[in-house]
Amino acid sequence: MTKKIDFYFDFISPYSFLAHKKIINSNDRIKFNYKAILLGGLHNLGGITAPAFNERKMKNMKNDCTLIAEKNKIDFTWNDKFPINSLYLMRGYLFINNNKKDKYFDLCFDAYWKNNEDISNGETIKNILSRCEINHNDFETGIKDQKIKDELKNLTNIAFNNDIFGAPTFVINNNLYWGQDRLGYALDELNN
């Protein structure tokens, strides 16, 4: 059986974006299980104040993300609308067909962290859906389906119950690696 690394993410997380781009740029043929979570919900469960709501942490986070992007040659722009509510987009990731998930994933991340677009804006979402050939009305109905709502809530609760407290988090062999800078450790664990 092929081992895979679980990659817990939320579109709201600039570090998840940077980790994803590092994965793409690595040319490794490693399989990742992308695990959608609601980062705000995870923080609420853990009683964590997100860096977005702490002026000093926020300033450092902006600088840190820019340094990481430059060092890794990743096209990155801090989004003027940070933070947004990613609830519908994360539900959308769970709703759409598997054959469209990769494109949706890339377009949402690029729109927010590369193109400085407001991905909570209806027109931006419609554009992303159109480029993925996803019917907007089906999407709107799907993200309101109780099964999808429960799935995102359950994934977030499972993450919390497994000591995950932020995004990105990588899990392999029951070992947890938090942060884009821990990707290499997760890869090392995969190869052991």
Task: Outline the structure in words.
This protein is α+β, with helices and mostly antiparallel strands and 192 residues long. It has a single domain (5-191), classed as Glutaredoxin, CATH 3.40.30.10. The protein contains 9 helices and 4 strands. The protein has helices spanning 14-26, 39-46, 55-71, 87-95, 98-113, 122-131, 136-142, 146-161, 183-191, and strands spanning 5-9, 32-36, 169-172, 175-178. A 4-stranded mixed sheet has the order 2-1-3-4, sandwiched between helices. Helix 1 links the parallel strand 1 and strand 2 (32-36). Helix 2 packs across helix 8 and helix 5 crosses helix 6. The chain is globular, with a radius of gyration of 16 Å. The mean pLDDT is 92.
Feature tags:
192 residues, alpha+beta, Glutaredoxin, 4-stranded mixed sheet, 55% helix, globular
The largest sheet, given as strand count, sense and whether it forms a barrel, is: 4 strands, mixed
> How are the strands of the largest sheet arranged?
2-1-3-4
Rounded mean pLDDT score? 92
Helices, by number, come to 9
* Rg calc: 16 Å
CATH superfamily: Glutaredoxin
Q: Provide the CATH topology.
A: Glutaredoxin
Text of the CATH class: Alpha Beta
Residues in β-strands, percent: 5-15%
Short account of what is shown:
With 192 residues, this protein is an alpha+beta fold.
Which helices and strands, and how do they pair?
Elements: E1 5-9, H1 14-26, E2 32-36, H2 39-46, H3 55-71, H4 87-95, H5 98-113, H6 122-131, H7 136-142, H8 146-161, E3 169-172, E4 175-178, H9 183-191
Parallel strand pairs: 1-2
Antiparallel strand pairs: 1-3, 3-4
Helix pairs in contact: 2-8, 4-8, 5-6
